[in-house]
Amino acid sequence: MLKSVNKVTKILIVGDFFLNSAWGLLGPVYALFVVQRITGGDTALAAKVAGFAALCYWAVKSFLQIPIGKYLDKNHGEKDDFVFMILGVFLAGLVPFGFMLSFLAWHIFALEIIHAIGMSMFIPSWYAIFTRHIDQGKEAFEWGLDSTSLGFGVGVTGAAGGVIAAIFGFNVIFILVGTINMISVLLYLLIRKNLIPKNHIAPHKLPPSWSF
After folding, report:
1. CB–CB of 25/173 below 8 Å?
2. Quick one: pLDDT at residue 144?
3. Torsion on CA atoms 106, 174, 121, 204, rounded to nearest 10
4. What span, in angstroms and rounded, lies between the C-alpha atoms of 132 and 196?
5. Nearest Cα to 118, choosing from 19, 197, 41?
6. In order of start, what are the domains of the chain with their CATH numbers?
7. What is the mean pLDDT of each run of 10 residues along the chain (212 residues)?
8. How many Cα atoms occupy the beta-carbon half-sphere of 131 within 13 Å?
9. Residue 73 CB: number of other CB atoms within 10 A?
């Protein structure tokens, strides 16, 4: 199945799998972490902290994505997309390690803002590169492949996250999330030599040796 997928698309899908699987570990235990580590067992306060943390993430991410996307579209080469993708996912990967040191609500808010900045850099650039390199005639299959791998990864790690946290504690979860997130950074670096340079608008006809 994967043999028919080109190198860039394949690496982007695998990297997306690792990235989302990493954060899937945190999902089931995030609220519990806030209750125990941040609010000292006050569930009502924890609900407010978790809710405002979600607001910080989604508001900042939503606000930044469109201007970042417009900026990236001004340059038809992929160097800027690649740089934003790598920096964004790397920045996001630092956040779980910050959670290990957090003990106040504003720490969580600040980290969620950092996470949002990283993902607002990563998502438009990832989609841009993926869209240009997707195999013609296989668009539905390859988008579906990415969605399937993402859902499978998040589902499995989501189930594992609760068990790991119960046995080993939150810090192990944060280390795993950050480490697996960084694996995706290393994977994305593998496409550096396959990027499209400026003034080339037919990515499917380019040889695999293009670099910037």
Report:
1. yes
2. 93
3. -170
4. 9
5. 19
6. 2-189 (1.20.1250.20)
7. 81 95 92 93 93 96 95 84 96 97 96 98 95 89 91 89 92 96 96 78 42 34
8. 10
9. 12
Tokens standing for residue 20: 């989302």
What is the rounded distance in angstroms from the CA atom of residue 37 to the CA atom of residue 101? Answer: 10
Distance of alpha carbon 113 from alpha carbon 111, whole angstroms: 5
Q: Name the token pair of 46.
A: 């924890």
Q: Which of 78, 93, 87, 101 is nearest to 20 (CA)?
A: 93
Distance CA 164, CA 203 (A): 43
What is the spatial distance between Cα 154 and Cα 52, in angstroms, rounded to a whole number?
Answer: 23
Q: Rounded to an integer, what distance in angstroms lies between the CA atom of residue 130 and that of residue 31?
A: 33
Q: What is the largest CA-CA distance in the chain?
A: 59
Mention every residue, 6+ apart, whose C-beta is less than 8 A from residue 128. Answer: 69, 72, 73, 78, 81
